[in-house]
Write the structure tokens for this entry.
Amino acid sequence: MKSVETPRAPVSSDTWMLHDLLEQAPGFKALSGTLIELAAGGAPVVALTGDLSYSNGLVHFQERYPERFVNCGISEQNMVSLAAGMATCGYMPFAATFASFLALLCCEQIRTDVAYTNLPVRLIGHHAGISLGFYGTSHHATEDLAIMRSIANLTVVAPSDRHVLAASLRASVDWPGPIYFRLGRGREVDVYPGEPADFSLGVANELRPGGSEAVVIATGSMVEPSLVAVDALRGEGRDVGLLDMHTIKPLDSEAVLRAAGRTTTLITVEEHNVLGGLGGAVAEVVAEAGLPVRVRRHGIADCYSLIGPPTHLYRHYRLDADGIAEVVREELERPHA
């Protein structure tokens, strides 16, 4: 556990509106910009997407390296298999589409074509969780962590902001085997002022030390609202700590055990079903160690989420800062056996 401008080819005038929209998504600028830097540095990077290059920002990579970019169309399963084939030829493919399509629709291709053969394919599942709330259940990805972490050989990473995303992408160059990156809408508020120093996949970042009363363990898009909530609680005099568990698999079990050793309550926060994701992973570690620590899994309570604007859904499911703080207070006030 650790405490812790890109060149672009000119575009035609009829695409400026789309580029202006992309300027509002710093996370996707970081995705494309980092891949451009890696390719310029000699990494055998290729990028693939399922007709979503403007949604995920890979249009910038396409403009710089058109010969290294493939738009696979609305054919995500073929995209994953194509990426696997490219990996066997010495390339490092980054295949991106909506997380709901990638993790669910392409599960067989990910398991059999990519993970079983342990190929260095980087799967980018963006707009995860309920961030596409008004598009409906078909576009919600609240099962992907559970699915991906159950696949052997597959590393699962959920960066909290553009800086951790960039650091994760750089670290992935020398990481063996395939990786599933779980991203939000690309508009997440910065948690870190820059790329974290000495960043390592599989090693949690301690954002707030201590936590004799409770330690919050958050991942991905939930780190920033958890940070706001924890700071508010600490301002009330409560001793609450916070871990950024950016890697779900392999989980930083040592960080979990250290946190469990200094507190009575662990609270996991994820934009995901409470079953099978971060909460399940943390509970497994605590149970196997036989520790007398209460684990509260906070997320979406095993249901299909409602349809509506993401901000409304976050408030409804208490996944905004106020809601997370409320959940922590509930746990602090519960009597211990």
